[in-house]
Amino acid sequence: MAAPSTTQCCAPIAREPLGEADAVELATLLKAVADPVRLRLLSMIGSHAGGEACVCDLTGVFDLTAPTISHHLKVLRTAGLIDGERRGTWVYYRIIPEAVNKLGALFAPLAESAPGPASPAAAGRTELELLPA
Q1: Contact 55, 41 (CB under 8 A)
Q2: pLDDT tens digits for 72-103?
């Protein structure tokens, strides 16, 4: 009986395995955004006009107390995803692009190398034809 052949069914999600230091750093970032409130805060700050958001713009959106919002912002800041600057009585937060880009880069190879089934590039081609050379 012949040994079954193995074929690669999909592209790898990473170009190379993560090293220990990179894994620790990325785990910290992922833990920080693993909470729905923090993920929304990060999104709100990143999409705010001018690239920064006053804490006064963030607190009214949630049914949470100001100290709870402050806690979530502190977690994002400690993880290195955002930075803040006090101006008078308010703190203005902005995204740290390098840190956020690290999160995006973790998943970018998957998006770049694996066309979806509805992709025109995939039309009429077999799985083996879609594999990188």
Answers
A1: no
A2: 999 999 999 999 999 999 999 999 999 999 88
Over residues 23-31, mean pLDDT = 93
The tokens describing 133, both together, are 């050379």
SS3 32: helix
CA 43/CA 70 separation, integer angstroms: 16
Beta-strand runs (E) in 1-133: 52-54, 82-87, 90-95
Mean pLDDT of 2-28: 73
What token pair was written down for 76?
């994002």
Residue of 131, 125, 123 whose CA lies nearest to 11: 131
User: Do 100 and 108 contact (CB within 8 A), yes or no?
Assistant: no
Distances (CA, A) of 45 to 15, 23, 70: 30, 25, 14
- Residue 11, token pair as written in the block: 């592209």
Asked if 28 and 99 touch (Cβ cutoff 8 Å), the reply is no
Contact 41, 94 (CB under 8 A): no
DSSP 51: G
Q: pTM for the complete prediction?
A: 0.70
